[in-house]
Amino acid sequence: LSRDTCRMATVLDGKQQASEIRADLKAKVAALQAQHPHFKPQLAIVQVGGREDSAVYIRMKIRAGEEIGVKVTHHHLPNTTTSAELRALIERLNDDATVHGIIVQVPLDSVEPIDEAATLNLISQAKDVDGFSSEHIGDLCKRGPLPAFYPCTPKGCMRILEKAGTQLAGKHAVVVGRSNIVGQPVAQLLLRANATVTICHSRTADLKSHVKMADIVVAAVGVPELIKGDWLKPGAVVIDCGINPIPDATKKSGQRLVGDVEYDSAKEVASAITPVPGGVGPLTVAMLLESVVQSAETFYCSSADWNLTPLKLKLERPVPSDIEIASAQTPKKVSLLASEIGILPNELDLYGTDKAKVKLSILNRLKNRPDGKYIVVAGITPTPLGEGKSTTTVGLTQALGAVLRRNVIACLRQPSQGPTFGIKGGAAGGGYAQVIPMEEFNLHLTGDIHAITAANNLLAAAIDARMFHEATQTDQALYGRLVAKNKFSELQLKRLQNLGIDKTDPATLTEDEIARFSRLNIDPDTITWQRVVDTNDRFLRKITIGQSPTEKDKTRVTQFDISVASELMAILALTTDVADMKERMERIVVASDKDGKPVTALDLGVSGALAVLMKDTVMPTLMQTMEGTPVFVHAGPFANIAHGNSSILADKIALKLVGEDGFVVTEAGFGADIGMEKFFNIKCRASGLKPSAVTLVATVRALKMHGGGPTVTPGLPLAKEYKEENLELLGKGCSNLERHITNACKFGVPVVVAINRFSDDTDAEIALIRERAIAAGAVDAVCASHWADGGAGAKELAEAVAKAVTLPSEFKLLYDVQKPIEEKIETICKEMYGADGIEILPLAAEKIARYRAQGFNDLPICMAKTHLSFSHDPLLKGAPSGFTVPIRDVRASVGAGFLYPLCGTMSTMPGLPTRPCFYDVDLDAETGAVSGLF
Amino acid sequence: LSRDTCRMATVLDGKQQASEIRADLKAKVAALQAQHPHFKPQLAIVQVGGREDSAVYIRMKIRAGEEIGVKVTHHHLPNTTTSAELRALIERLNDDATVHGIIVQVPLDSVEPIDEAATLNLISQAKDVDGFSSEHIGDLCKRGPLPAFYPCTPKGCMRILEKAGTQLAGKHAVVVGRSNIVGQPVAQLLLRANATVTICHSRTADLKSHVKMADIVVAAVGVPELIKGDWLKPGAVVIDCGINPIPDATKKSGQRLVGDVEYDSAKEVASAITPVPGGVGPLTVAMLLESVVQSAETFYCSSADWNLTPLKLKLERPVPSDIEIASAQTPKKVSLLASEIGILPNELDLYGTDKAKVKLSILNRLKNRPDGKYIVVAGITPTPLGEGKSTTTVGLTQALGAVLRRNVIACLRQPSQGPTFGIKGGAAGGGYAQVIPMEEFNLHLTGDIHAITAANNLLAAAIDARMFHEATQTDQALYGRLVAKNKFSELQLKRLQNLGIDKTDPATLTEDEIARFSRLNIDPDTITWQRVVDTNDRFLRKITIGQSPTEKDKTRVTQFDISVASELMAILALTTDVADMKERMERIVVASDKDGKPVTALDLGVSGALAVLMKDTVMPTLMQTMEGTPVFVHAGPFANIAHGNSSILADKIALKLVGEDGFVVTEAGFGADIGMEKFFNIKCRASGLKPSAVTLVATVRALKMHGGGPTVTPGLPLAKEYKEENLELLGKGCSNLERHITNACKFGVPVVVAINRFSDDTDAEIALIRERAIAAGAVDAVCASHWADGGAGAKELAEAVAKAVTLPSEFKLLYDVQKPIEEKIETICKEMYGADGIEILPLAAEKIARYRAQGFNDLPICMAKTHLSFSHDPLLKGAPSGFTVPIRDVRASVGAGFLYPLCGTMSTMPGLPTRPCFYDVDLDAETGAVSGLF
């Protein structure tokens, strides 16, 4: 009990400790940079006004940051800054993906009224490295999960105590000072360390008596040398957070810094004490940098650690209608879903609470993360009823995500509104394997198709208007108007370059150059660009336009297509970024001129406007399945005149989000002979992505049809062959499945057959399919009942797919694009369809010659063929052979980047039946509920 | 110093105190209900699992709530509830406007893993009456603004101490227990009351010695009678939060409740003590109810207390282009703007960060709030350059909101994309009086026009498809298909009723009834419903459709209009809620049948689908001005064939949001003879809203033109008359202004003239206009320079308008709708235009007769007349007289609810010029910035 007066307190050297921490951080940053070349932590310091002490602290932070490889940017605002301007800066920094920590230097020095607490709450939680937001402080005070960041000085105090080996549990800690920045949070940290904590402050009566009781004293009160040695309990540990300048004539500056504790007397009594300077101060800066590095690491190098909460299904029997099932499930808020799968708030544009667009900046943030496994779902040659490919895509992801708890994203196409209100109904999957809310999925979604319609029709209007103006004006008048502002627009300059006219001043063009520049000389018979509406409007299949007297008899026969048939849709699906999309739009060929040269959207001066109209379409839309797993909905091109796959951008983002051990399941339209072939040869060629497995969807029903079963017609009851066991028909029909499997194997990718089981299917039938599929080269063939059972019904399938992706895969393309057009077509027809050969008909031959002359030989081929047979004849079922494919015409989607040979007539405008789906569709005025979609 | 052992502690009777508080609350609820008939506070209690103690507490809360008029709903979930299901319930309660407080009874009793802290954070801040969210706890712990709600037990403790008159400042309070619910928050409240606070807990060594030091002891540790009398400092005040059941054989239940303090020994030492039961417990419940009532009061009865932070302008000279100005300003996040003006988070559907739709439910929440002042901005008869009506609308609101700091919302029309890419450019105002981001305003906005296009074209396709199917099928075949599901759809049942066929079973119709039901017998020559695109596409002005062989030669001549000319746009603008919109859609007349009867969208079975396609369009879109004041953008019907005003719904919501002392500024298209007249006679008639003032925009330039100045042509320089002082021309032209003022006065509404000043205008010219305007009956005439100066430039105008709305106003309509159609037309032409009379031409007479026969006499009149003159002749400037207005045709928008007589040809499809605006439009692929819009 007697005190050894000779023993002096241990000096807790914060400077040394901070220097060690900084050295460790420097090594860590260097190591991360070696692994992730673009890893560069950045701290943004926001300062309002010109307080000298703030300036000193900021300089210290900048210097320390630079030393260890953390970029520190100093945003110094004048003291006239308004709260709106300060807010705008913070929001900009929140949104800046290169900034990982934001601190606002307090106190603010401003002549305007600015709410400091509200300002600190503006900093996004992920970047609040000072930990001062109400939410972070609240988490600190609550017993429960810890905040991501602690305030730095308190964190430094705790680190010193830890290093000193001070026991805290059960000890009495007295904190002098109750500031937001030090006193309060350090008290909370001491409490978390199980100390008994007393908080004293300016209003405390008899401060000395409280301090006297303390095993640990933390001084953070801002009064120079307030606490004397004789206030302390002998052996107390003293942490001094004060930094107070006092006059000192012996110093050059006329002052020196002291703490809140009288150091000289205290060190005689305490067992350990931090000096000032050189104690807590340096630790504060080191802790800040530690938090910034931690934040940057989370930002750049986070593994795909999802925290997904699946939604439970309540299965009902009999299975209700799609919209009843979908309406009975409450989706998660999409903002929650996004955060569960690691999308940052500023990477999301919400569209209400159930849909959100994901910004492309996420690709940059995650570029070092390895891609997940890439699964394409394709189908056998279908009956007109469809074999459940979309439903299987959704069901498989529900199984992988909600049942097997693997990271998985489904990538789906956006459906056209035409069929939704026409015959087909919605396209969000079916039964307990659906995208929800299904009415959002099937209606406007986030407006992409509408934007495509607007852009497509602006280009179409521009073509006819330009022909009209060229027909009614002289070269000079035309030129005068085109360069009305006496300046070429950017697009006009590009056109001049393409024409070989190397001039930028409109006054310097020769007459010939003026004529060449001003006249596109479009040959009306060669126009391939049609207007579009997203409505099934059969009366627009062939129309005559320009019949108003204002158009002076310049009538023309043309047509409307449905919007999703627009080349702009194919461009959206194949584009890899905004710059690429712009270039594709410039390249769009709308017609030939009278000399046979291609006329482009760039020539019409409209490609920039197309890009502006479609600027938001490049962002995929995030939705969810019935079981709360993520879905990207993006693009939906036709599968005959286009490639019928959802977007490359959605797949790319999804592959990063799911991470190395995750899965992306994307669907290819029509049968595998079309959808899968185009997925590989067009989409993967453009994206450079390597598929990991094919899931091939088959049904007993379709295989029996291929074996010679009776015709299957929508709306009519199925023949009895389809409702009873019939192994003979099935066995014959398996030839169709076998050829699809063989085809997939030609690309070097493992195949899993998914048998979409119906209630009438027998075990013997299933066993037969399985046997034949494996014999043909499939790695597995598995039944699935996701329509009735949700993800649980596709668990076995999901396990088979998860196993298949671990097998060696050597992806290869089917043909070299530099081969002649005819040869590429022939390769597809022989290798994929089983044809003996092709016959190029005269129109096709003429077009091939034209495209070759125009320089478009090296585009991949997008076959426009029926999906109801391997051949061009929908009646040839099974695996036909001995046929020759007639190539009637060849067209070009130069912007999208493919040629599409036509093997028959392709309808690009569906019609409405006598009783369209819309008869049942209604809106409840009270609840807003939509009924009648299916 | 000696203690009086005879003195016993004062018993702090919580039961009595709680009873008084509840009585006060009951009176308060009753008083609020008297004032606001639908005021009904509701607390939702969420319980997971079946803990008996929780059940007891919940029963107490329900009983106490019922007693004072607070509805308490108990949401009792099973212990198998998943975290997703619990989250879904909380989110539903967050969104439920009838619920004002939500508490989750803790501890949760669940077999599933549920994160309690995360669950509490799901409750919206406005309903977190337990104050347990991290944000509320953080605010409680920080020195700064207080949280809206405190945890209830701590709040009760403080209320008892307050009532007992206990001094806290400088005293030593010892809190025993550190729970989130009591210990921690009560410590924070004591600290806020300036006590020195020690927090003890289970790990505290020598608890007794700490308690012994306390002037105030708060016990919240959950250990029966832990703290004994001899632990206390004599005279201490003891607050006992413990409620512990201990065995007691003398009780029927076998147990009794005791606190954490040994009451009998403690009351001998303490100066005051709370009993258990009857101490803190009843206060806890009372405090909870107090918070619920407070929350409900905020919800229902909040006055329009805005907390708007204006954006500062940085004015540059010369004034840069519109898009340069707009791009230089950083808008507030629209979620922040919404919260500043009192829109709740669940009343908002975000569309990215700059636009949001506002839900109609807000009208119900605010229905007791008095409306603000309703200002319409109209213009004199304009030159073809426009006189700055939109810019004045925006500038005036910037002045009222950002300069005068009054509550104000501008209500604007959404522009069509056609003109944006055609000749006119954008429509977001101009200069420093604009809506931002202007490219969002001018492009897709939130998709309303696209939804209208989709709905319009579905109806159009339905007409032609129906005629085709009727032409190619027998009655029976048609009927068989129309009732394919052997059941009439809802819309078919309505059609049957309209036909007078009172049957619901399809099998029971007679042959005649089948024919009448199945055949619409549309007379193709009477079809008035056109297809639309939102593109300037002149070649669609007159077209022939149905030329494909699939349509079997059923060709028809028709036209496309621009989308904003669709009747659906006028319906959106005039509708008052979703039910009303649906009814209007059912009433849309698309043609007459061969018997001259109207054929409606209901007859085609498509009106439900139209409502579904347009379900989101009813919500106005919130944006902001350059100075950060709120703007609603909603609907944009034509001003000739429709009424040219933005929506009733936006105005109604805005009038509630700004509150009694606020302003809503809405714009009427074209000159006041058209826009203002229709605003009053059509829009105000439909809405029942009473306008407070008219702001009439005039320019020196236009008035000189009306005085006989040279023609003003877009694109050509102005003649010198317009650049030099010319009082003579101006004086003559003032006749136009005078007649508009007189017209406005006929409606009984005060008029303020806004002179939109240009740099060449002289003081003498301004003075002349002012003199003439006031002489004609205007209450004031004021110059404004908002284009160059933003809101500051319209300060004087804003002051004049703010004064004008305080004047007596007796709004009256110009005509009674029940008068004959001809008489209504004549009234408008004589009273508004100054005509001698009208001449009904034969086609018009025929149509008037038809509409009268069809029952459409009582619709208001929407004149389709040139906006360039008071008369039908654009060349008659000034205030012409002595003319007769020819009525060439009359058409009906029965869904929208008006008849529109045509005085001339109205173009409903603009064209593209040789060099359309789109030449300059481009997207920066790197930054996403849009250039070239203006």
If you had to describe this structure to a student in words, what would you say it looks like?
By secondary structure, the first copy, chain A, is of the alpha/beta class. Chain A is built from 32 helices and 35 strands. In chain A, strand 5, helix 7 and strand 6 (196-200) form a beta-alpha-beta unit. In chain A, helix 18 packs across helix 20 (511-518), helix 22 (578-587) crosses helix 23 (607-613) and helix 26 (700-706) packs across helix 27 (727-746). The longest helix of chain A is centred in the middle third of the chain and has 25 residues, at 448-472. Chains A and B meet through helix 3, helix 4, helix 5, helix 7 and strand 6 of A and helix 3, helix 4, helix 5, helix 7 and strand 6 of B. Strand 6 of chain A pairs antiparallel with strand 6 (196-200) of chain B.
Short description:
Chain A is of the alpha/beta class and 934 residues long. Chain A contains 32 helices and 35 strands.
Give the topology, please.
Two copies of one chain form a homodimer.
Chain A: E1 10-11, H1 14-35, E2 42-48, H2 52-68, E3 71-77, H3 83-95, E4 101-104, H4 116-122, H5 134-141, H6 152-163, E5 172-176, H7 183-192, E6 196-200, H8 207-212, E7 216-219, E8 237-240, E9 244-247, E10 255-258, H9 263-269, E11 272-273, H10 280-301, H11 322-328, H12 334-340, E12 348-351, E13 355-358, H13 361-365, E14 373-379, H14 389-403, E15 408-412, H15 417-421, E16 429-430, E17 433-436, H16 438-442, H17 448-472, H18 475-482, H19 490-498, H20 511-518, E18 531-533, E19 543-545, E20 556-558, E21 560-562, H21 567-574, H22 578-587, E22 589-592, E23 598-600, H23 607-613, E24 621-625, E25 630-633, H24 648-658, E26 663-671, H25 675-687, E27 693-698, H26 700-706, H27 727-746, E28 751-756, H28 763-776, E29 780-784, H29 786-789, H30 795-804, H31 821-833, E30 837-840, H32 842-853, E31 884-887, E32 889-893, E33 898-902, E34 922-923, E35 930-931
Parallel strand pairs in A: 1-11, 2-3, 2-4, 5-6, 5-7, 7-8, 8-11, 14-26, 14-27, 15-25, 15-26, 18-21, 27-28, 28-29, 30-31
Antiparallel strand pairs in A: 9-10, 12-13, 13-24, 16-17, 17-24, 19-20, 22-23, 24-25, 32-33, 34-35
Helix pairs in contact in A: 1-10, 2-10, 6-7, 6-10, 14-30, 17-23, 18-20, 22-23, 26-27, 27-28
